[in-house]
Structure formats: C-alpha cells, structure tokens
Amino acid sequence: MPRVNETGQTGYNARVEQFRHVEYPMLDGSVYLDHAGTTLYPKSLVDQFAKELTSNLFGNPHAASAASQLSTSRIEDIRLRALRFFNADPADFDLVFVANATAAIKLVADALRAAPDGFDYVYHLASHTSLVGVREEARNSLCVDNHQMQAWTEGRCPLGDEAGNRPLLCAYPAQSNMDGRRYPLDWADRVRHWGRKTYTLLDAAALVCSAPLDLSNAETAPDFTALSFYKIFGLPDLGALIVRRNAENVFNAPRYFGGGTVDMVVCVKEQWHAPKTRFLHERLEDGTLPVHNIITLDAAIDVHARLFGSMQNVSAHTAFLGRRLYRGLASLRHANGEPVCELYSPDPDSTAGGLGSGPVIAFNIRNSQREWISLTEVEKLAVLKRFHIRTGGVCNPGGIAAALGLGPWEMKQNFSAGFRCGSENDIVAGKPTGVVRASLGAMSTMSDVDSFVNFIAEFYQETSLPSPALGPVSSQGPPNLRIHSLFVYPIKSCGSFEIPAGVDWEVRPEGLAWDREWCLVHQGTGQALSQKRYPAMALLRPSLDFERGELRVTYAGQIPAHLPRELSIPLSKNPALFHPPASRSRPSRVCGEDVQAQTYSSPEINSFFSNILGVPCSLARFPPGGRGPSMRHAKAHLQKHQVAPTEPEPRPPGSFPPSPPDSDSEKSRTRRILLSNESPILAITLPSVKALNEEMQRNRPGRAAVLPAVFRANMVLAPAADTASDHEAQIAPYAEDWWSSLRIGPRRHEFECLGACRRCHMVCINQETAEKSDEPFVTLSKTRRFDGKVFFGVHMCYGGQLQDTGQLPTAFFEAAARGDVRPLVIPWSFVGSFFLPLLYLSFPHTNRPWLYRLRWAVAATIVYFHVRMLQTTTASDEAVAYTTGLAAVWGTIWSLRLLVFTRPQWDAARIVCRLRRREKEGRRVNGVKKQEEKTQEDGILADMTVPDESVAAALAQGYEYVWQSYPADAPFFTRLGWSADLLTSFRGAGWNYAIPSIPHPPPPPPFSSPDSTCTTTTPLPVRLDQLPLTSRSGSSRSTTYATFRSSRFRQIALAYLVLDILVTVVRRDPYFVMGPEYPLHETRPPLVPGLYSSWLPASCSSQAWCGQFVMRTLRHFGALAGIISGLHFYTAIAQVGGLLHAAGGHTGVAHRMGLTPVHNPDDKQSRRRWEDPILFFLLQPVGALVQSILTRLIARIFPLTTTTTQTTRTLRRTTTFLFVLFWLHLTAPLLIDDMSRVGLWMFEPIPLSVLQLAVPQWREDPGSWWRWGKRWKPAPSLFLSAAQSSGGMGIGNWGWSLARGLWEGIWI
C-alpha cells in the first residue's frame, strides 16, 4: 500500500528536500531531469569511497598477495550483495560485472553468434538501440509490438519453428527508456514454453533507476538481465549481466579466453587450454576487473539505503512526481484552448494492466496554431535556464517512429535530406524527428517538477491572441541607412576585427575578405572549437597587419606570467607552415560538415591557443577558392515569417505563422562560404538592438543593455545620421526581416538578403568579458520566435555588379600568394609552347631514328605542361588571363603540329637572303650547263611587276633570295635560329608552305621528294618574279615603306575608332558588363539590341582575337582533324577555334577567382558553360553551308546576263550580308555571353575616347574622355593587339605581355 508521509502527499519523500543541498551540492541553481540517462551521486558516497580507498590496500585480484586477496574477497562479497539487491539467489543466478548494460547485451549476442548454427532474434518495438543492434548478429530477426508478443505467449511464435535446433533469443525492455511505459516481466517465462529452444533477454536498465527488480523466482525470471548500476546509484560506472544458471550453456560456444579465465594454457608445440569451470563469471570476466568501481558499488548500496531506504520508497516517490509532472504539462493550454504539449508517455493513472509507468515523460511542444517547436530551441533555452533534459531520438528508434508516426521511407528520406543524430534541423517535412524527455529520480523534488512546468508555461504557452502577421510595414520609400560599423572575424568563434572607417575592403563570394578564414580544431576529434563550449575564445582578439603581412592575436584575459599574451601568424599561405595533407588522419569538422582545412604545424602557434583555452587544439586555415571537401555552401534561406501574405485574407489567431513543410530541409542556392555557420555575411540594425534592450528593461528592470557585438555581425546598419528629422531616416525595428536586397555606396553595390539568422545561446556571451548569462536569448525566445525557432539579424551575400574590377587583381594576388593559382610568368609560361620544341628541333634527327622517336616523349611533356597551365594559371589582367587559356591550347596544337603531324627537318624551308654566287661559263648550275657568265637573279628584278624597295635594294647590292631547308650540318646556333624562325613565323610569306591568303612566291618542290635538287649547299632560288601584288583573297602587300606606313595607319585608326564607338556604346549597356542575365535598356526595339549585342561584338572580337595569324596556326592541325572526323576542313578549324576560346574562358581571372558575374547560380542558363564557344565555332561552317546553298539558289533564280549582271551581284551580296548578320545574331551570344561571364569586357581597351571628346553629350562626366585610370582599369594589350591584328603580332603587344608577366612573376 502506498504510504502517506507527514505532508499528506502519497508516496512523496519529503526528507529529500532536507538533505539534498548537502548531499547534492552540484544541484544548486539547477534542475536535473535526466535520471533515465544517469542519476546523481551523493556527496557522502564520494566521501565513503575516498575513505575506503585511503584505508585499504587493494591489489590485482589475480595475485596471491594480501592486497590481492583483499580485492578478491571484497569482489565476491559485493557480487553476492548485488544479487541480493535484486532478490536473486546465487544458487540460481550468477552475476558478471561488465562496463554497462550495452556491454552485457553484447556479451549475450557474442555467445549466441558463436553457436554452430547461429541464432534467430525477436526484439520489441520499444527496445533501446543496443537491443536493436543484436539483429545484425542473428541469422533472422524480427521487430514485434505488444500484440505480437501477447500472441507469442499464447503459442504463436512470430518466427515459426522452421529453424529446427537453432536457438531463438527474445529481447525486450522492462521499461521504455523513451516514454517510461512498462512491460510484463512474465513475458520472459511465457515465451519459453512454446516451440523451439528460446532464451529471453531483459533490458532492465531503465526500470531499475526508480523501481525494484525482483528475481526471487528463478523459474519465471529472464535468462539474461542487463542493467547499469550508475543509473541506480550515480556511481560507479559499472554494469552487470545476471545469468540464470539454466542458461549458462549458451556461453560454452565462444572460444576466446582472456587473462584470469583459464586454469592452464599450453603454447609451445601444442595449442591447448583449460578454462575455469566453477563459476560462469570466472570464464566471462576477461582480464583484470575494475576493482575500485566494484568497491564503490559496496559503498553506493550502503549510502542509497541510508538516504532513501528501499527501492520501494524510491518507486513511490518518483511515481508521485511523475504523476505531478504529467498533469502539469497536460494542463497547459494556449489562449485558444489548444494544448501546449503533445504527450507520448502513458497517463500514470490509467495504465492498462496495472503495470504502471516509470517517472519518464516524453513530449513535444506546439504553438497555438499546432505547429511544432524545434527541439533544439527548447534545449537551448533549457540550458540557459539550467534545466537538464534530454531531446532527440533518445536511442529508441522504434519508440520514436511509433510515437511520431514516422514510416521507414520517411526516416530514410530524412537521412537523405541530411538529418543525423544531433542535427539542429529536427523538424523535417512538417514532422518532428525526436522528443523532449524529462525523467525523475530518487533525489528529485516537487520544486523541480513545478519549476519545469513553469518554464514551459513561461516560454511556450500563448496566453493572449496577438494580431495576425500582415507582412512588412508599408513606407513611402526605402529607408535611408548608413553603415555604422564593419567587422570581420578572422578566427572562427574568436574576437572581431573592426574595419577602420574609410578603408576599402574586398567583398568576395564567400563574404568579406579574411572573415572566418581560420579556426581552432580539437587535436583529438578535429572538431572546430566554439564559444558555446569555450567562452574564453571571445578574449582572443585578432588584428590584421597588412604592412607586415601578419595576423596578430592578443589574449585579453588573465594568463600566467610565463605564457605569451600575443602571437603573430603570417598571412601568406606558405606550405611550410602547415602539416602535409597526407599526414592528416581525419578531416576537420565545422558545423557538422567535414572540411579539409590546413592545420598549422608550428608548436608555438598551437601551444599558444591550447594553453590559453586549456584544451589541446591546433590552428587551421580554410582559404577561399576550395573545391570538393575544401568547399562549403550557405544554408540560409527565407523563413516563413519573412514571406508576406499574397492576399489580405484572415488567418487563424496566433502570432506564429505556420512552418513550411520542408523548412528545415529545403536546399538554398549554392553560395560558397568559408567557416561561417550559414551565410557569407551577417547584418543587424541598431533599431532592432534598441528594441530588444527596451523589451529586456520592461521584463527585467535594471539589467544592463546588450551590445551589438554579442550578435557577431559583419555589418551593423543604422539610420542615416544627417537626416534624423526626416521620416525616411527612421527604420522600424526588425525591418530587415522584409528586405530583399540592399544597395550600398554611390556605385550601388547590391547585397542580396538570404533570410533571417537563427540564433543560439552564444549571443549570451559578453564579448568583452567572456561571461555568460541568459540574456538576450531569453527575451529573444519570447519576442522573436517563429516556427519554433529564434531569429535575429539577416543573412546576406554580395550579388552586385562587378563594375569596380579592382577586386579582380586583388583577389588574384591574394590567391597567388596563398598558392591557389599561378601567375602567367614570362618566359616560364612559354616553356611548353616555345622552348621545348625549339630545343628539340635544334638537334638533327633525319639520320637518327631514336631521336626522331623521342618526339613522342617531348610532345607528351608539352601536353602535360599545358594541361597544368590550364588548371592553375591565370593573370590579374582579364585579357592576359583569357589569353593564358588560348596560349595553352594553341601551344599544344602548334607543338603537336611541328613534332607529330609534320616533319619540318625534311619538308620545311625558309627564304633567306645571302650574298649572290656568280657562276662561270662552262659550269653546271642545278644540272644545266651555262654558256656565259651570269647571276641567278639576272632578269628576275626586271620581270617583277612591282618590286619592293627592300628587295630591289638587296638585289642591287649583290644579294639573292633562296629556299633554305633544315641546316643539319650547320653550327648549333644556325640550327637554333632556323628552328626559332619556324616556331615564330605563324606560317607567313617566308616559308614554303605559307597560307594562300597572303601574297607569297610559289613554293619549291617538296624537299623530301627524290626529284628535289635542293640541299643545304645548293638551295633553290626564290621566284620573286612570280610574287603577286594581291592574293586571291584580296590581301595586298606594300611595295614601299611609305605605302606600308600609310595602310597600317589607316587600319589602326579605323580599328581605334571602331573600338571607341563600341566601348562608348557598351558602357551604356549592362549586358556587356554583367552578362546576359541582366536585361538591356527597354527603350530600344527588341531586335536592335540583339543585333547590336551579337554582330558588332563578334566582329570586334574576331578582329582582335581571331586574326589571320590564328588561322595560319591552325590550318595544318585542323586539316588533320577534319580528315579524322570526316568533316569539312572549316569544321575542323571551328572545332579548334572553339576549344581555344573555351580554354580562354576557363583561365579568365573572374572565373578562376570565383567572381564570375552570374545573376542566378542555380539557373543553368546563367552559368558559364565551357562548351558554348565550341558550339559557336561549330555553327559557323553550318552557316557557311546554308549561305552557299542560298547563293546558288539565287544564282538559279536570277542567272547572270549582260543586262542583269550588276543587279544580280548586288542582290547576292545584300542577301549574303543580311544572312551573315542574321546568323551571327542567332549564334554569337554563345561566344559573347561566355566572354561576359568571365569578365573579358571589364577593362578599358583605349586610352582616349575621340567620340566622347568630340561629342560632349556622350560623356559620363567632363573628364570621361580620358579612359585610363577611370572606372575600368586600362589594358593597353588589347589596344596593341587590335592595332596589329591585320598585320601580324607587333613588338608592342609582346613587350607589354613580357613586362606584365615579369612584374607578376617578380611580385609573387
């Protein structure tokens, strides 16, 4: 019968309140409600244990000394006492000491697994995870519920009897560790009487915490009982397996034996041992027992009996408190009558079968609209209020699934969505993934119960019906704001570094430069340290010293005098500072994600942080620009409360809008971050901080206001100071919830708002003193909780235009200093395309087959060099960076052509000028006998239609022009010059295989032909008389220096004027700055911008980048590709041309630095696609084919006659022009968009704008006619390239590239 104590409370032990502050001083100010995990140990137990150890000498029980014999005797006495604690007769039971209940369960599973035919397994739905895991060792397994267990007790075995003699193990908990529901203990006996040989395993760990376990009847008791003593007494950390002697034969199958479990072992010549057979525990307790833990158990039983009497008293006490807690939580109602708590534990007063329930209450919390409150948020607030509870899956997967209605497919889907045990996103697809569990113990009091119920009521019970959320407050315009302060946090979770006012600071895709680029990781686990566990991290104050290139860290707290207070860390990414990647045993872990950070190897650096924080840790760096495991992505997204209603329809009462079904699992856009938790940039507003402090003062007058620093924001915004009287300068608190974007500065840099920032109790740490309190999180939980989560501040990312491309060179030089990229360095970057083939061709191999075969190795080396160049190399200048990719692919093609696809030392010859040789009468010249003295060039000069001045002067001075094949017998430097001329000629007019588009003399017969008479000593003369003035393609040559200078000046002037017009117009069109995702001006007709944005830029780019020298380079290689693929020659040229430009885009500095101006990263149409340039060039032969067909069709319809010749030609030319314009309009965006996305338009090609100088209306400002040094940086290389494009590469372009390459190489 339940007893009534002196207070009139049935079963309540009021004595606990009298001794608790003495026996449990660790509970002062705290409420401990996790006794199902482990109960608490009293102070007198610790004192008695210490007295026991200091009064006795305990040795290893396996020895014969007095100390060892004392240990042995005490262990056996305590074993017997522990059996009697559960009313177990030692004649019927044996007790095996183990580490805990899980170890006891595993001991049974290992024994049955060793059986000859294994075992089958049936376990109850409410089993602990440790019981569930046994199924992996069984041949067959099945999870059953109450109905199936009841049917089994009536003779219907769930697995049947088909397995023959294979043993069957049935396991179930005496009490669910999740909801406290208790199950019949007689199941253990009733299932043994039916069918096959069945053993029973009872998990009593949860039951014995607060109820007696009676094993007095050995016939009905379970075969195996697993339990943990620390759940009963608090100490020791010890468990036990109680084995019914009738089931001891199960442990005969295992073959392993350990120290102390055998009487004899033979190792030499024979393999034999004799196990101990007297007691089961002697065979199962491998090695030395935990002597001191077992001694502690003796003291624990004594102290427990003195404090609480019997376990029946504990059971009555905890049952009373359990009913009180259940009724208190069940009574909580919102203002609309909805319950606050969804209870999963059975009602203690109405438990079926009279089994009762343990003092464990499992529940979840809903708001007045029946939306779930996040478990993580409940635990955060409970921690601050010093309530110790358990949340999550509580290691009971079957019970959780049944209580929450989670099907297997839902749990697997949650796992695929990223949910893991301990994840903060605990509401997935509109359902919770765990519970809140409060469990009571022998030392719990009514005050504990009432305090917890009041805590739930204070923070989660809605006692009034606030007005429905109607969305953002309307205003007459956007607020006028200013940036109050900017912060970066170089080391994650450490102090801030305030960016000085007036200092330009780079904004990267990952956030502000240098923000959260370092972190401290635990040396054992690799887990990133946080202020939540180590508040002293707030006193580590980093500062950036760019003049010295150092990150200085100063500790602002108290430290011993012998420890340094300041540390300097180089900003450079010198590999010597870090551990080699291969030496890392495991990746670092940040916010639940594995990252491949670089850990510093310096003992000085790591010991500085370890000594200050008192934890073994290392400094690690996570530099920007990573890929794969070195890359993280933002998780921020708009929350439900930030989405304004589309219609002003009435909503159900309540202040908290419903949570979206997938709010915790939905995927945000792919935005790169470094070590920040959720987004690149975090912003707060001072009006919101002020409103929060005012609310705190209303609730708790006199409390000090919190500073903005506790929110650790990068950007603190405030109303504009100079317009305080203007209503537009006022900003409502929490107005940032409704912002979609911010535009900052005169250039209107745009920052996209990603969503509200979810807060944890780290905001309660004072960033100046590292002291922790419960504010402001307590007030935020009451005023800023939406969808069960607490929010303050707004996540942002930089999404503005890359108009100020100064950030590109800055990003490049920083990345180069870190070693993430390599600069284009001259002459090193041309080793593959120039120096290697030059050196190889300088050695004769016409008579050396082995050297000729070596060309494959040289070609492979060149290909590897250029592949590495494509992977790692770029430049600070957009044009040079783009050219890097072109040069890598072109160098590969050009080298393969000279080394693999042609035989220059057999077939190539160049035109050289040498002194004329006179032939005497009667001598033979080229096999023809001369009758009179004459020169080889006599008559040629006279036969030339229009002689060049330089040629005429050379002939007049006694020189001649001849074809020179490879000078194999000449000195090395002669061969070197011949090879250099070959490599740099671009197949101009001076070679026997010059392209036909330029005027050139007829080539001689093939030198490898048997009929050829040309040798090194008898070269063939060049037929200058057959050198045309104009080629068939219309290219002309100049015959005088005056005409040459005049024609080139006209070409330069025309190219300059075209560039000027294009640049001036382009600057008015954002398309050429930002890419195709930004719309054109709406004032122009739809077709005109398309034509303008495709045809004119395509023409300009073709003139600047796809000049004649590129086509000269690709002709031979393209012909081979065309033969192999079966395509037309021009299709092969298109393939190579597209590959060139695709490579150029890949090495573009904007693309390589991750600053590609993409408006929507998730939109496939706005991403840079490497195949677009290739597709553009492949489409041009198609257009040529269509145009050819169209021309022939017009020729048939309108044939040429004497009367219609001019009209027909005009019609054909007009049709061709319109078709070309139309075709480029359709296809050019493939190339132009790619150039835009890699930032190729982001530089200034001309120094002075003639158009703006002549037409003031086109000027952006009075001085905008001078272009260099303005908004876009100058790029003389483009101007020189465009000017020289029609006549080959000039020294100006090479000089500029050489100067830039040398500067970048020396600087790096």
TrEMBL record:
Residues 651-661 have a biased composition (Pro residues). It comes from the Eukaryota. Keywords: Membrane, Molybdenum cofactor biosynthesis, Pyridoxal phosphate, Transferase, Transmembrane, Transmembrane helix. Its EC number is 2.8.1.9. Its cofactor is pyridoxal 5'-phosphate. The keyword Transferase applies. The keyword Ribosomal protein does not apply. This is Molybdenum cofactor sulfurase. It comes from Humicola insolens. The gene is hxB.
